[in-house]
Design a protein that fits this description.
The complex is a heterodimer of chains A (438) and B (201). Helices cover 62% and strands 0% of the residues of chain A. Chain A has helices at residues 2-16, 25-32, 41-48, 59-86, 88-92, 108-126, 152-162, 174-182, 191-206, 210-224, 234-246, 251-254, 257-272, 287-301, 303-312, 321-326, 335-346, 353-365, 367-372, 375-383, 390-401, 415-437. Chain A has 22 helices and no strands. In chain A, helix 6 packs across helix 7 and helix 8 (174-182) packs antiparallel against helix 9 (191-206). Helix content of chain B is 27%, strand content 23%. In chain B, strands 2-3-1-4-5-6 form a six-stranded mixed β-sheet, with helices on both faces. Classes of the chains: A mainly alpha (438), B alpha/beta (201).
């Protein structure tokens, strides 16, 4: 196992050697397809996602340009409108021309409120990122120097106060805390706690927590891509990339985690955004057709399982595969496992064909339980996939893809299970009858 | 006869804007716990709880949906099989209340006619941030002839009551002993609705 790991490490290192003027992408993919060592992952992902050019001598100039581009975007999209929104008093002077209640389509305020609708949705979701780990709640080591002065969550707050407190999240954000502080006399028990929360939240609102950086990335993406905007779940696609880049042991690179995550996310979205566009749902590139392709794949690899799930139990791919496929399995496993899984997914030359095989491997690894389970059992299993060694899933998926895995043999021949199934069907029928008669 | 884990199966659905607390309500009911740090629901989620009502064991199969508009095409396909729908808004979020009308239209379009509806105003523990009065909630429910409760998943206020109330209403609608045609909601063998079901009983 360790020697295998060392071999893999050596292989990837060889591809990434400084002496290599041009990175061989195919070699890199081959090396990374079973997982990338932590120290090399930030670089490998930048390459695999087609962000960094393959010519090494281009890197410095390219990165400097891209990071400058990102600064400019922050300036145009966040700082300038942010300055207006945060200086409400000075805007009062221009009231004749434009004001917060103006519904004129060219009103800056109207655009501002439109943005804040998107923003308040993003804000709700980024606060809910990977609650089992602390990282996203912690302060960023390298907050963006301009962006941090205009934390977007504060704009959501301004919006809230201007439009009769229209804000939906039940969070310990600054809004709730300011209000709790005002109203603390109503609830003496909670007062000291609220006070603490208030200071704490104020602090985190002015400094930048990692979730606020994800928020900024998503907001800029939504502004630049009005056709896609923000759809719930995109937060789950940014988070692993940002986590990997921000924890780069090379601090020179970690310092630009935000900008580089933005561009890598943009690259990733260019490949998977169709999943998020509602109007494409029924088209050939939409999520519905990905789901039915996946169920066809189960059917041809394991007809018995397919039949059991779809005909007997009537489990639709929407029940579980929607989330699996559209979020690249990011909600199914703990973050470190998601990252290992993404090493393999990003190394797939036919992105994201491997994803479907990974999903099939997940089904096959639970085959016996699924075949014995009833509807609630199977749905619950598929929606809460048990802890599994993801390396094992990936290896199995690659075997299925490469035709090396043996197809499961239908158990029709086995008398025992046949009788058991008949008995189960009979008892289901009886149960249905008894429901109808009641 | 052989042991029967439950007498009836009711399929329920939770809908409403994103962030109003659908998942928290369900978690409070199914696991009797509260957690502010739920990840957002993508697509559709599912929980089971068996309750006893009027001497019958009733298995509740509860579907929790994503709130954002984008997921409506995915989630509306579950409306059809639902026997009860809980429409949740957040009493501290005016927009989520304004959208009730939109959600009700969705139900009319996609759910079966005899589905039992209920409106829940959640987060009623946060009185200092309340922007939707109880009266407004009651009024809209009354206008549509729908049951209404204000709930707090956090403090466990009326969550159980709401689910029991909904289950009871569904139970009351069940044909008692009438030899009625099979009801599509409980009989998977006959998924198609019989023609002209509109005016029956």
């Amino acid at each position: 196992m360790t020697t295998k790991y060392m071999e893999r490490l050596a292989k990837i290192e060889e591809v990434l050697l400084i002496a290599n003027k041009k990175i061989d992408l195919n070699e890199l993919r081959a090396g990374c397809s079973y997982g990338v060592p932590e120290s090399l992952r930030p670089l490998a992902w930048r390459l695999l996602l087609h962000y960094l050019p393959l010519e090494r001598h281009d890197w410095q100039k390219f990165l400097a340009e891209q990071r400058k581009n990102y600064d400019d975007m922050i300036e145009q999209i966040i700082v300038e409108p942010g300055t207006a929104s945060m200086a409400i008093n000075s805007v009062q002077e221009e009231e004749d021309h434009d004001h917060p209640l103006s519904d004129h389509p060219t009103s800056d305020w109207s655009a501002f409120f439109q943005d804040n609708k998107v923003l308040s949705q993003i804000d709700k979701d980024v606060r809910r990122l990977y609650p089992e780990i602390q990282f996203f709640q912690l302060l960023s080591k390298f907050p963006h120097p301009h962006g941090m002065k205009y934390p977007l969550s504060r704009r959501v707050i301004n919006h809230q106060e201007l439009t009769s407190q229209e804000f939906g999240a039940n969070r310990d954000g600054i809004v709730g805390c300011v209000k709790t502080k005002v109203a603390k006399s109503q609830d003496e028990n909670q007062a000291p706690n609220s006070e603490f929360h208030w200071h704490f939240s104020l602090l985190t609102a002015l400094l930048n927590s990692n979730f606020q950086i994800v928020e900024r990335i998503l907001f800029i993406y939504a502004k630049l891509n009005p056709g896609v905007q923000y759809v719930q779940g995109m937060n789950e696609l940014v988070a692993p990339i940002y986590y990997v880049f921000a924890n780069d042991s090379d601090e020179e690179w970690a310092a630009y985690a935000e900008a580089d995550t933005f561009f890598c996310f943009q690259q990733l979205m260019s490949e998977v955004k169709d999943n998020f566009i509602k109007t494409l749902d029924d088209s050939i590139c939409g999520i519905e057709s990905s789901m039915s392709a996946f169920h066809n794949m189960i059917s041809s690899f394991d007809s018995e399982l397919h039949k059991h799930l779809t005909s007997t139990l009537e489990i639709k791919p929407q029940f579980y595969a929607f989330r699996w496929l559209s979020l690249l399995l990011s909600q199914e496993f703990p973050l470190p496992d998601v990252i290992t899984l993404w090493d393999a997914l990003f190394s797939d030359p036919q992105r994201f064909a491997l994803l479907q095989y990974v999903c099939l491997a997940m089904m096959e690894l639970q085959r016996e339980s699924l075949l014995q389970g009833d509807f609630p059992f199977c749905v619950r299993l598929l929606q809460n996939y048990p802890d599994t060694d993801v390396a094992k899933i990936v290896a199995f998926a690659q075997d299925i893809r490469d035709g090396k895995a043996t197809r499961p043999v239908p158990k029709e021949a086995s008398k025992g299970s046949k009788i058991a199934r008949h008995a189960r069907q009979l008892s289901d029928t009886l149960r249905n009858l008894s429901i109808i008669k009641k | 006869m052989a042991r029967r884990p439950y007498d009836m199966l009711f399929k329920l659905l939770l809908i409403g804007d994103s962030g109003v607390g659908k998942t928290c309500i369900l978690y409070r009911f199914s696991d009797d716990a509260f957690n502010t740090t739920f990840i957002s629901t993508i697509g559709i989620d599912f929980k089971i709880k068996t309750i006893e009502l009027k001497g019958k064991k009733i298995k509740l199969q509860i579907w929790d949906t994503a709130g954002q508009e984008r997921f409506h095409t995915i989630t509306t396909s579950y409306y059809r099989g639902a026997m009860g729908i809980m429409l949740v808004y957040d009493i501290t979020n005016a927009k989520s209340f304004d959208n009730i009308a939109k959600w009700l239209r969705n139900i009319d379009e996609h759910a079966s006619e005899d589905v039992v509806k209920m409106i829940l105003g959640n987060k009623c523990d946060m009185s200092d941030r309340r922007v939707v009065s109880r009266e407004r909630g009651e009024k809209i429910a009354q206008d549509h002839g729908i049951r209404f409760h204000e709930t707090s998943a956090k403090l466990n206020v009326h969550v159980d009551t709401a689910f029991y109330d909904l289950a009871e209403a569904i139970l009351a609608k069940m044909p008692d002993s009438t030899e009625e045609q099979s009801r599509d909601t409980v009989n998977p063998v006959q998924p198609q609705r019989t023609g002209g079901s509109g005016g029956c009983c």
